[in-house]
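Recall the central idea of this unit: under ordinary conditions, the amino acid sequence of a chain determines the structure it adopts. In this exercise we apply that idea directly, starting from the sequence alone.
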Amino acid sequence: MSHSELRFDEIGYWSEVKLDIVKDYATAYSTILAAQQNPRLHHVYIDAFAGAGVHVSRTTGGFVAGSPLNALAVTPPFGEFYFIEIDHSKVEMLHELSRTRPEVHVYEGDCNKILLQTVFPRVRFEDYRRGLCILDPYGLHLDWEVPRAAGQMKSLDVFLNFPVMDMNRNVLWTNPSAVSASQRERMNRSWGDESWQKEIYDGSADLFGYETKGSNQDVADRYRERLLRVAGFDYVPSPIPMRNSKGAVIYYLFFASHKAVAADIVGHIFDKYRRRMPR
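Accordingly, the structure predicted from this sequence is:
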């Protein structure tokens, strides 16, 4: 496959910030895990929506290394890499980028199934394996069972894209009765059940009879509670909002872990990039 046959995803400033955040933590994570000696731990990198490995910057027009390429360049290196992508042309690009790296495993298909059935069973806590897992869907494409399973495993640190813009456009309307059954089902799968309807809407109505729902931050706060209370992560720092060129929040970038030191590191990284972001 030639590169001309593949249309690279264009990404904005905020997506480049996200890539830098993940890269910074991946470097710190691999450094800490590689130094662990008693017991020795085998640590892996998992990217569930890996893309082609390369993007095009809307800001400069140039190529930008994606999460897979950034991870492959981390030193000390991860022991293994698991890249999952549903788009065939992007899968071929991932194979091309990693053809000299036998520790890389590329999967084509639905990450929800592949993670639960194939990848997560290879990162069991009792096998002295640990992993950094990137869950970065474009919209409501991540089933709740994935972060719930990750939290129960105790062996994974997770970055998670919580797509509030997709939710607002398709599900979280002021007139919920007008939302289609298929969109409600998407939200149910992403949230884990139908409890979002009670947690996001407060049961009151405005002057026009429309239901009152929480702000984007309120919705993110409820999801953070689920990561802690239902998925069972011990540490979930306040997420960082990622915005479009008009300043509207597209999604919140969450981090979840069972280690206090991991949460502290990510807290410092989040603070650094919050200061860097335009207002």
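DSSP finds ten helices and twelve strands in the chain.
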